[in-house]
Amino acid sequence: MPNTMINKLPAFDLLLLPPVNEAQVASSELPKMAESIESCLAAYGIEANVKHISPGPMYIHFDLLPASGIKVSQIANLSHDITRSLSASSIQVVPVIPGTPYIGLDVLKNSRDTVYLRTVLDCAQFRDVDSHLAIALGKDISGKPIITTLTNMQHLLIGGITGSGKSTFIHSMILSILYKATPVDVRFIMIDTNMLELSVYKKLPHLLTRIISNTEEAVHTLHWSISEMERRYKLLSVLGVRSLVEYNQRVQQAADLSHPIPNPFWVPADGANMTMLMQLPNIVVVIDEFSDLILKAGKEVETLLISLVQQAHITGIHLILATRYISVDIITNLIKSNIPTRIAFSVFDKTDSRIISGQNGAELLPIGDMLYMAPNLVEPLRLHGALVHEQEIYAVIQDWQTYGQPQYIEIIPVNDYEALTFEDEELDPLFDQAVIFVVEKKRVSISGVQRQFRIGYNRATRIIEQMETSGIISMPDNNGNRSVLARPS
């Protein structure tokens, strides 16, 4: 990857600006609306003042400060009168705005404003986030951009019917990262068995592999991700750190002092000169329609995903899973319990809404709106997603292409892949040596066998399966772990 790309990020002027007239029309009406609210309440003997006005895409939010002794119920009981005085279709009274003395009034706008991607990326909230994994989720009902990071999320599960805005949101997340990270900082693995949404990124230099388009390759890619997770865990352990951020800081500090850290797993077979530890990128695995993998490959895919979502985030590997099929067979309790950060777009009915969000409501969402659930939230947050135009995607990708083509790694070596397709009842020539290795280590690891004997993933997998058939190791449990049954001789 050329070094010229390291400090250059895309310019915001690659993204479309919203039409000026939308904001102008709204702002000219806001003071009049505030006066109408105060006058309506005063007519019923209720003293209250509008202190802040926040126009959002769908609602206009008013912070109302009631006089001493005024109850929330007094204002709530007049909601229909306030609605009539504003000539609005509906309002919602927010009894408590945490951390303030205000009561909230959310007035539904006569027409919805489009949230442009530029308005949530080219803003202080996004620019001030010091993370390569910053994500612009969209705007809340008051129009405030809501920004988080994949580091905080750990992983993300997204559900919504076709046409709900789910795919557009995935693009907005990818572009968010592309405005924060170079290929040195973040690499993507994209799995899209339908080859509909993610194929547009095929020339993006951030790609770690070519875009995965079939189930068999996707399964192998998930296996590789687990092997990479295990490798990174060992590196973190050697340095005595607890996250990829700390690991990269330690490696950089050593390099700055001209005392690079030797690779503890280097062996002469790797080359004549000992290698030094290098900084590692975050890896974002995006799986569009992971339900297709579950339906075709079944329990194996769920087991692989669970292994990753339980531990991979510590090593800088993060999963984004999306599905249009909402059912307990796809979004199982095991997946939900391990991915607490979830986003629900519009779904078919209340049952589907409860499956992904734990409550009703997602079935009523309009296109582009979402319910955002995270461990730090008491209840789901209603957000308006940003519209992403195709020309914006191409513009950002083209901007990155000027710095180089994707440098793929070979996750599935061709010869090894072909070898797996033939049935072979004979034990592998390395079988006996591998048994000794596993029994002595008292730990079953495909990646460990790979590294010890310098073989490909599929051959190592076959050796492990032969050990299971021979009764040397157990079958994998629900977490994919195996026990060593044989004792050292």
From TrEMBL:
Keyword set includes Transmembrane helix: no
InterPro entries membership: AAA+_ATPase (IPR003593), FtsK/SpoIIIE/SftA (IPR050206), FtsK_alpha (IPR041027), FtsK_dom (IPR002543), Ftsk_gamma (IPR018541), P-loop_NTPase (IPR027417), WH-like_DNA-bd_sf (IPR036388), WH_DNA-bd_sf (IPR036390)
GO molecular function: ATP binding; DNA binding
SUPFAM superfamilies: P-loop containing nucleoside triphosphate hydrolases, Winged helix' DNA-binding domain
Residue ranges of domain FtsK in the record: 143-354
Highest taxon listed in the record's lineage: Bacteria
Binding locations of ATP: G160, I161, T162, G163, S164, G165, K166, S167
Keywords assigned: ATP-binding, DNA-binding, Nucleotide-binding
PROSITE patterns: FTSK
Pfam families (alphabetical): FtsK_alpha (PF17854), FtsK_gamma (PF09397), FtsK_SpoIIIE (PF01580)
Its biological purpose: Essential cell division protein that coordinates cell division and chromosome segregation. The N-terminus is involved in assembly of the cell-division machinery. The C-terminus functions as a DNA motor that moves dsDNA in an ATP-dependent manner towards the dif recombination site, which is located within the replication terminus region. Translocation stops specifically at Xer-dif sites, where FtsK interacts with the Xer recombinase, allowing activation of chromosome unlinking by recombination. FtsK orienting polar sequences (KOPS) guide the direction of DNA translocation.
UniProt cross-references to PANTHER family, sorted A to Z: DNA TRANSLOCASE FTSK, SPORULATION PROTEIN RELATED
Family: Belongs to the FtsK/SpoIIIE/SftA family.
Name this protein carries in UniProt: DNA translocase FtsK
Species whose genome carries this gene: Photorhabdus temperata subsp. temperata Meg1
